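Tutorial, part two.
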Amino acid sequence: MSINRFEQRARRARKTRAVIARGTRVRLTVHRSARHIYAQIFTPRGERVLVQASTLDKELRDATTGVNKTAAASAVGQVLAARALAQGITAVAFDRSGFRYHGRVRALAEAARTAGLQF
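Running the prediction step on this input gives:
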């Protein structure tokens, strides 16, 4: 029996999270939908969200209208890194939630790195 693409992505996400859970760093998780991208930083065990940013935030909603999705993801990465640095978070483990490190996910990660997050 073949596995559909959603189950494949969930399987990849579980593998990544199992590796990240062995560490002590906070986890930067990315989720993308067809229209928006969401990023959250969780505690090491995943109990609580420490910082979040998405294309639906008030400050990003106006800045990302009329902009392509990759540029919007880059803006989300910059805002997330700024919020994390303000709370004293400098190093994170990157959890791409089973998505390929390509396009919007890559743009968000590179923007967060250039803004000061280490992963």
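The CA atoms of residues 53 and 79 lie 7 Å apart. In part three we will examine how such features are distributed along the chain.
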